[in-house]
Design brief:
InterPro entries: IPExxxVDY_fam. The protein is an alpha+beta fold. It has 3 helices and 10 strands, in the order H-E-H-E-E-E-E-E-E-E-E-H-E.
């Protein structure tokens, strides 16, 4: 009896999207507006945030589907800050105060200093990466932006939005 072996290594290795890291200090809606203006796209906030169950964090996400180019653009926040209350100790005091602790989580933990990621999904060969990167760098509020090699990421599963 013949034994057949199915090898799927080549299927899952190739990333079919471009990922651009953006470092800036402005709010997410403001960056989406500036990207729309400078790139000629139409990013719109999705009704629900991107939730990570393991660390109970949520990341804002904007999306635009370009039907002419068969491309999906996503702008996602990389940083989530949550505030938790510390448990009260049983000491009685004149002034009872709540103490809070702020925890910071990252969607892509390898890039902790990056504020946002622009993910461009395209099944075809996407050749406008340098053009897009130069336009993003021309935005005065953006400190820096650079391309990310998706195949080197350990937490690339967090970039699956659908």
């Amino acid at each position: 009896m013949a034994v057949r072996k199915l090898v799927l290594d080549d299927v899952f290795e190739e990333a079919l999207y471009t990922l651009i890291a953006i470092h800036c200090t402005i709010e997410d809606y403001r960056l989406a507006y500036l990207l729309n203006k400078h790139l000629g796209i139409n990013l719109v906030r999705k009704p629900s945030d991107l939730d990570c169950k393991k660390d109970k964090s949520a990341y804002s996400i904007f999306e635009w589907k370009d039907n002419k180019q068969l491309t999906t653009w996503n702008l996602v926040s990389n940083i989530c800050k949550t505030q938790e209350t510390l448990p009260q100790n049983n000491q009685q005091s004149l002034f009872s105060t709540q103490e809070y602790i702020t925890k910071t989580f990252n969607l892509i933990s390898e890039y902790k200093d990056v504020n946002y990621f622009l993910k461009i999904d395209n099944d075809n060969n996407f050749s406008k990466e340098a053009y897009i990167l130069s336009h993003i760098l021309n935005i005065p509020q953006v400190v820096t932006a650079f391309s990310v090699d998706v195949n080197q990421l350990k937490s690339k599963d967090n970039l699956i939005f659908s």
